[in-house]
Structures are given as C-alpha cells and as structure tokens.
Specification:
Layout lengths: L1 H18 L5 H15 L2 E7 L4 H10 L5 H5 L2 E7 L14 H7 L9 E5 L5 E4 L1 E2 L11 E2 L6 H14 L4 H12 L2
Helix pairs in contact: 6-7
Length: about 180
C-alpha cells in the first residue's frame, strides 16, 4: 500500500513538473544580464525551436569540444524558444516572440541570434546588412552560418563582441565551415 501511495505521489509531482511554464524572455534576459555583469561578458541570445534543424546544428557547433569553452568564456549563452509546433507550444518562452519582433527578427527564420552587452544594449544580430547600415534596416539572416559570407560575418561579429583572439576565431570558423 505504501508503495502505491509513493508511486501516486511520484506521478503527481512529475505531472506538476511537466506543467511548469518556461521562464519568460524578460526573466531570462534579466538573469543573463546580471550574470554577464558579474562575469564581465556579453549576452548571446538564440531564438530557436525543437523542430529546427539549423538550430540544432548551430547549438551542436557552439557546444562542440573545439568551441564550447570559447563561447562560454566570452558569452552568457541563452536560448529562447518560439514558433513551436502546436503540440509543443508549452515549451515557448513567454514574451520571446515580442522580443524577436522588437529586434526585427520575426520575418528572418530560425535560428535568429542577438548579442547584448551586460546593460541590455544591442551590440549585434544575425542580420547581414551592408556596412554601416542601421539595425532597423532589414538584412539577410545568417542564422546558423553556413556559407563563406555568413561565416565571415559571424566571425567579425564575434571579434567585435568578445575577447576571442585570432587563433580562437579561426577555430570557430573552421567548425562552422565543416560540411
């Protein structure tokens, strides 16, 4: 009997855990900014969805043995889930779509990324624009950089927003260049 009560309690707790809503975009950004201030880093936000193959590819490259420490030593990397399929809408971070719209990524596809300083100022996004163009001018989403042009843009952004040296940037470039 005690065993049945234990099992029933366990499944009730598991059910409650499964129903807990993900953190809001605002909470995630606030926590990331606080951590970035304390760690003297910038914040790298990636908008993604579970169905997105390019999102998984970007995540796997950034977490590859050659790259993982390079990103984690230079950025507070956080994911915001959006655009999930109907059966997985509960995974979405509340407010993430509003943030995506605010930073002109709603028509760009996934993944879409933003880099902020520790005060929340936008430093870069994944839109490749002509040199000197303003952030509000639409560009081409590099998403998970794959073409030489996209990879070069990504590496230049990393160079401007981190303390990565040329050897480290070359390593990241090499990982993104693999087919």
């Amino acid at each position: 009997m005690q065993y049945l009560i234990f099992l029933g309690s366990f499944f009730c707790l598991e059910s409650l855990n499964a129903q807990v809503s993900p953190k809001s975009a605002e909470e995630i950004l606030k926590e990331a900014s606080q951590q970035a201030t304390s760690d003297k880093k910038n914040v790298f936000i990636i908008f993604d969805a579970s169905w997105c193959g390019w999102c998984h590819k970007m995540d796997s490259i950034m977490n590859a043995p050659a790259c993982k420490n390079l990103f984690s030593h230079n950025y507070i990397v956080k994911h915001l889930v959006i655009l999930e399929s109907p059966g997985k809408k509960q995974r979405e971070n509340p407010g993430a779509m509003d943030l995506l719209i605010k930073f002109h990524g709603d028509k760009q596809g996934l993944p879409y990324w933003l880099i902020f300083d520790n005060k929340g100022n936008l430093l870069a996004d994944s839109q490749l624009r002509p040199t000197g163009a303003a952030f509000d001018m639409p560009g081409e989403n590099t998403g998970c950089p794959a073409t030489p042009k996209e990879i070069t843009y990504f590496i230049n952004i990393l160079k401007k927003t981190s303390l990565l040296n040329s050897n480290q940037l070359a390593l990241i470039e090499q990982e993104f260049s693999k087919k």
